[in-house]
């Protein structure tokens, strides 16, 4: 029986774990959150952070694993590729993963190939004296990001006149490497574009674009929902696909699923924000499978243990539409009690996954780790789906705290 080590056992990684179990593989899981649901499903689990490369390499050797993967987690992909390269398991190169995961390296890759030239600079915690000078050199708006975070943790829009030092300090604190990137903030045509794709033999063989839903409030940078398909026109999405494909080629990406976020600028240009060298979080692969019939969950698992695996996606036309809503609190903190469903929203609920149990701490949704759960919405028309998400879907759910 082939053994697969999953780096992470959170709720959004459970579909991949279940696929592996149903396919007859021996499943091992590891992260530093013992209560994560994937551990209960696994044949064997370890209470070790997914960032502990050497410890996990030792386990991988001892357990004689045949594959390793990290669905939905950029930082865990660094460990994943490191171990896979050491053990000659199916994977992209460690250098490739770093060029996509580390935000400063990603911006440099794009800039050096004259694909996206914006004003940006990396700063180290021990050498941050030039930050204020960098921000003052012109009148552009900037955004600060830890170079190695995910889930929108530590990301803020900077304003020199309002607590910008606090925001920079927060970004440094979130970064494992204690490095940040400050880059030009670009205005966009709404909505933001999100989605997943699969890359193989030098090209994107499948991609599905969606709308990313965000608050206008710059204190809440994480998306609270995704709906599919995207509302942007086919011509601009074809340009986006070609640009994503070129960047993956330049990075040395060899094979596998990828997640992306991009914007259409005010002058109608495609600007790539991020490419994650793994499947998306927020149950995006599950939503895409329900929408199209294309199983990238299974493809990611199979590719992790078989170098010869070739994905052959076949789209099935559906007469229903699906979206992912991140259940959260906008302003209240307290202990979770229950959730109420209002205005007949039950008619549109396909799947509910609660991350919090009664008594767990609830905090305002400043980053993805503050989510209470995920709800997959199903409608018969795309018009109804967009109407729900564009017109106060938050008001259909009431979070009770005590």
How many beta-strand segments? 19
Which spans of ≥5 residues are poorly predicted at pLDDT below 50? none
Class of secondary structure makeup: alpha+beta
Kindly estimate the percentage of residues that lie in beta strands according to DSSP. 25-35%
Kindly state the mean pLDDT as a whole number? Answer: 94
Shape: globular
Report the span from N to C terminus.
Answer: 48 Å
The biggest sheet amounts to:
8 strands, antiparallel
Q: List the total number of helices.
A: 12
Proportion of helical residues: 25-40%
**Cα-atom radius of gyration:** 21 Å
Strand line-up in the sheet with most strands: 13-12-9-10-11-14-18-16
Description:
This protein has 402 residues and is of the alpha+beta class. Helix content is 30%, strand content 29%. It is built from 12 helices and 19 strands. Strands 13-12-9-10-11-14-18-16 form an 8-stranded antiparallel beta sheet. The chain has a 4-stranded parallel beta sheet with strand order 3-2-1-4, sandwiched between helices. A 4-stranded antiparallel beta sheet has the order 5-8-6-7. β9 and β10 (203-213) form a beta hairpin. α3 crosses α4. The longest helix is centred in the middle third of the chain and has 18 residues, at 234-251. The radius of gyration is 21 Å and the shape is globular. The model has no long low-confidence stretch (mean pLDDT 94).
Please render the helix and strand layout as text.
Layout: E1 3-7, H1 14-22, E2 26-30, H2 37-41, E3 44-46, H3 53-63, E4 67-69, H4 74-87, H5 94-101, H6 103-112, E5 120-124, H7 131-136, E6 142-146, E7 156-158, H8 164-174, E8 179-184, E9 188-200, E10 203-213, E11 225-227, H9 234-251, E12 255-265, E13 270-276, H10 284-292, H11 296-305, E14 321-327, E15 334-341, E16 349-354, E17 361-362, E18 373-379, H12 382-390, E19 397-401
Parallel strand pairs: 1-2, 1-4, 2-3
Antiparallel strand pairs: 5-8, 6-7, 6-8, 9-10, 9-12, 10-11, 11-14, 12-13, 14-18, 15-17, 15-19, 16-18
Helix pairs in contact: 1-11, 3-4, 4-5, 5-6
